[in-house]
Amino acid sequence: MRCLRHGDADARVGHVIWIERIMHAFDFDALHRLGLNQTLAAQWLSSPAADHSQLMRITELQRDCLQLHDGRDEYPARALPALQASLHEAGSGLAVGDWVAVEAHAHDELWVAERLAPSTHLARRANDGRRQPLASNIDTALLVMGLDHDFNLRRMERYLALVQAAGVMGVVVLTKADIGQDVEARMAELHRRLPRSVPAYALNGLDEAARADLAPWLGLGQTLVLLGSSGAGKSTLTNTLSGSALQSTGGVRRGDGRGRHTTTARSLHFCLDGACIIDTPGLRTWRPDADADSLAATFEDIEALARHCHFRDCQHEDEPGCAVREVVPADRLLNYHKLLREVRRSQQTPLERKAQQAKWKVIGKAGKQRSQDKRRGER
Ligand SMILES: Nc1nc2c(ncn2[C@@H]2O[C@H](COP(=O)(O)OP(=O)(O)OP(=O)(O)O)[C@@H](O)[C@H]2O)c(=O)[nH]1
Ligand SMILES: [Zn+2]
């Protein structure tokens, strides 16, 4: 992908045509196909920006260069420095999936002037502690896990907790049901461990039937992401859901069923059943991020039981009168504690982390000193 530069004659001619073409009336149907829902549409139409700019969705983002989609075509664009600054100040930033107000300025460039508040937002914590936006306006996360050696309930629980904490619906998809062992036993194990409200499917990602299984999540106007470890079957399932195996390879255009053509973006796949899938490199290597409160909300069984523990600050380890330990499976409890620790650590600023490390160092030294003293005393 490249951004347009001034003086790039060929690009400029093409661009003038784009500008004339894109400045058309609001077309809900075209944008609905890109994942726009009624709520966001109403939010847009009531904003002043709707009078003089165009609503588009970010389909790709590399440094300052953006790719935008208007439901018909893709366009390169940049974000206005003022927008970047205000988002940065709020500890946020643009992400694939954001809906934005686009202005065509005189010097034949498209500029993103505003962002519609996203309904949901997946982010990760970078090494320096900053939040790094990954994807916005996601309705459903398909949590993909293979029924082979990939199967790991603890990891599934972790994905689920963290997408739910971001307000995204988590749906468990166990792939490789055609070759997996103990499929029924593993499904039963999953149902015992996870809340009953979590939908779960075992399927063969290579089989067309997967579309029927997942139909409730694939309707028009829905946006999905697929999360899971490498080799779990995300690409395979994306291909099956988007029918790309049926399309001639290399073709980037396909009909949208209404005689019009829609350009397929690299990070955005259109499902045969109407939904779109966002797939960016960042999501592939996603390290989930959430705050302690929303995490606790997804382990509400533990939080509810904890109110009946004898001690108010019960850690549910070996305290007497613990109401949690005897009901909640030990492994789930262990996972919960591990996640909480991780979340607390990731919420620290670099300075706080340093202070904590220094504290542990002092405690460690004191411990060493004590055991040395003790040994000396024993001699
Ligand atoms: N038999 C069978 N094979 C599957 C299924 N799903 C995926 N595979 C195979 O598993 C391998 C990995 O699948 P991918 O779809 O590439 O996995 P991925 O999650 O996209 O992996 P990354 O791109 O590394 O993140 C491929 O050889 C697929 O053909 C399934 O449901 N059944
Ligand atoms: Zn307890």
From TrEMBL:
Protein name: Small ribosomal subunit biogenesis GTPase RsgA
Residues the entry annotates as binding GTP: 175-178, 228-236
Keyword Metal-binding carried by entry: yes
Positions of region (Disordered): 347-379
Basic and acidic residues bias: start-end ranges: 370-379
Domain CP-type G residues, every copy: 126-286
Domain of life the protein comes from: Bacteria
Family, similarity comment: Belongs to the TRAFAC class YlqF/YawG GTPase family. RsgA subfamily.
Organism the protein comes from: Chitinimonas taiwanensis DSM 18899
Cofactor binding, note field: Binds 1 zinc ion per subunit.
Purpose of the protein: One of several proteins that assist in the late maturation steps of the functional core of the 30S ribosomal subunit. Helps release RbfA from mature subunits. May play a role in the assembly of ribosomal proteins into the subunit. Circularly permuted GTPase that catalyzes slow GTP hydrolysis, GTPase activity is stimulated by the 30S ribosomal subunit.
UniProt cross-references to InterPro entries, sorted A to Z: G_CP_dom, P-loop_NTPase, Ribosome_biogen_GTPase_RsgA, RsgA_GTPase_dom
Cofactor or coenzyme needed: Zn(2+)
HAMAP family hit by this protein: GTPase_RsgA
EngC GTPase domain boundaries: 136-284
CC per GO annotation: cytoplasm
Swiss-Prot/TrEMBL GO biological process terms: ribosomal small subunit biogenesis
PANTHER family xrefs: SMALL RIBOSOMAL SUBUNIT BIOGENESIS GTPASE RSGA
Residue positions binding Zn(2+): 309, 314, 316, 322
Subunit description: Monomer. Associates with 30S ribosomal subunit, binds 16S rRNA.
Keywords assigned: Cytoplasm, GTP-binding, Hydrolase, Metal-binding, Nucleotide-binding, Ribosome biogenesis, RNA-binding, rRNA-binding, Zinc
Cellular compartment(s): Cytoplasm
Record-listed E.C. numbers: 3.6.1.-
Molecular function via GO: GTP binding; GTPase activity; metal ion binding; rRNA binding
